[in-house]
Amino acid sequence: MKAQDFHLANGPMNGTGDAAPALRDLPHSIRSLCEIVQGVLIHRDIAPWLYELKLSSDKRALANIRPVARMIAEIERRNAKPLRETRAPAERMPCVCWHFSSFIAAILRAQGVPARARCGFGTYFNPGRFEDHWVAEYWNMAERRWVLVDAQLDDVQRRTFRVDFDPTNVPHDRFVLAGDAWQQCRDGRADPDLFGLSLINEHGLWWIAQNLIRDLASLNRVEMLPWDVWGMMPGPASTLSAEDRTFLDRVAGLTLGGDDVIAALQEIYDDPRVKVSHKVFNADRKIDEELTF
């Protein structure tokens, strides 16, 4: 099976339920879909800063919603207008970058376009740093290639972060896939302490390893929250063994591989060190949570 065929179907977290027909009827241009997603979602950490929107702890907690179908239900609960109609910032669902990426990928799949969410690091939020981030990736049939799309970057954010590229075609040196970050740091071409999340002052090879495992899961259609922790994911005080590093070297290579490595990605994902179990640690809530697939 080719990756394009595999990523036409939804996984356990990204099914759209009864909303699929409505998603198919949305505009089919990438730029229009980005604007629609931006009109119904708002990043909970950027909201107070750029949109003058203070959020209660209950509203911030909505960012723990995983299934896309539940995201759509929450969006409609907050405002029953059609999805294509932009909401005021206070009516949008508070979330993080993962939700923008998972949502637009789900819309694209509903429209018959292979798509997936990718985990890695953005270079455009904090000069000189590689900030934890998610984008979407879709198969551009005309160009016969996978294209990265940052659906979070609206006009306000593009001005604020001085984005100098097209968010519907993000260069790979501006969004660094987790596997690429791992290889650069393992080869001594990059400093792992520049990779992480400045907002909470956490960084290092352990953070890159966590994102690498999240990206592997997403490439197997299991798109987990950016703070879900499972399996061999190390913590800030952990030391990866030589065996674990060698194993993650192989994972990194496969996540950066071509469309013919899907079988190998599925095979390595079956390793219990990296496969999402039915219980994960939610580091945002600081609790173990049961998952239903």
Based on CA atoms alone, the radius of gyration comes out at 18 Å
Low-confidence stretches: none
Mean pLDDT metric: 96
Count of domains: 1
**Approximately what portion of the residues adopt beta-strand conformation?**
15-25%
User: What gap, in angstroms, lies between the N and C termini?
Assistant: 23 Å
**Which class do the helix and strand fractions yield?**
alpha+beta
The total beta strand count reads: 11
Helix content: 25-40%
> How many helical stretches?
12
Label the overall shape. globular
Order of helices and strands: HHHEHHHEHEEEHEHEEHEHHEE
Describe the sheet with the most strands: 6 strands, mixed
Describe the structure.
- The chain has helices at residues 3-6, 20-24, 30-38, 47-50, 57-60, 68-78, 97-110, 155-160, 178-186, 205-219, 242-255, 262-269; strands at 41-43, 93-95, 115-122, 130-140, 145-149, 175-177, 195-197, 202-203, 228-229, 279-282, 287-290.
- With 293 residues, the chain is of the alpha+beta class.
- The protein has one domain.
- The strands form 3 sheets. Strands 3, 4, 5, 6, 7 and 8 form a 6-stranded mixed sheet that branches. It has a 3-stranded antiparallel sheet with strand order 9-10-11, with no helix packed on it.
Blueprint of the fold:
Layout: H1 3-6, H2 20-24, H3 30-38, E1 41-43, H4 47-50, H5 57-60, H6 68-78, E2 93-95, H7 97-110, E3 115-122, E4 130-140, E5 145-149, H8 155-160, E6 175-177, H9 178-186, E7 195-197, E8 202-203, H10 205-219, E9 228-229, H11 242-255, H12 262-269, E10 279-282, E11 287-290
Parallel strand pairs: 1-2, 4-7
Antiparallel strand pairs: 3-4, 3-6, 4-5, 7-8, 9-10, 10-11
Helix pairs in contact: 3-7, 9-10, 9-11, 10-11
